[in-house]
Amino acid sequence: MTTAVVFQIQSFLIYSLMVFGITKRKNRKIHVPTMSVVLIWDVILILQIELGRDAVAKASKALVNPMILNVHVTFAVLSVIFYVLLVVTGRKLLKGDRTIRPRHRLFGWTAFALRTLTLITSFFAVIPK
């Protein structure tokens, strides 16, 4: 089994767990730990891809990369940025700041859309050697 397949399997599992976590968003005891695992595992997957494929060096060659790879990298980076926003707003929500809920919800659905696009584009972005 190639590393590309292992990465794709992990990506699909992370995405599936994310969908499960979203469906449990009204149950804080399930939602918070599930989404924490999702965010941590997704960042670990990015680190694995960097270590295994030297992804940052490839991504830095944006002018010569296929457009789909640049789009994929953009979605992945934006996903992580929104993960940070989700952690910040989620912590405030857990502390009782109900005014942050609409922003947290917006960040969450945006992160989910970006993660969906990251998963889809990942099938096309792998460059054969």
Automatic annotation (TrEMBL):
UniProt key word Transmembrane helix: yes
Protein source organism: Bacteriovorax antarcticus
Transmembrane feature ranges: 6-23, 30-49, 69-94, 106-127
Protein's name in the database: Cytochrome b561 domain-containing protein
Keyword list, A-Z: Membrane, Transmembrane, Transmembrane helix
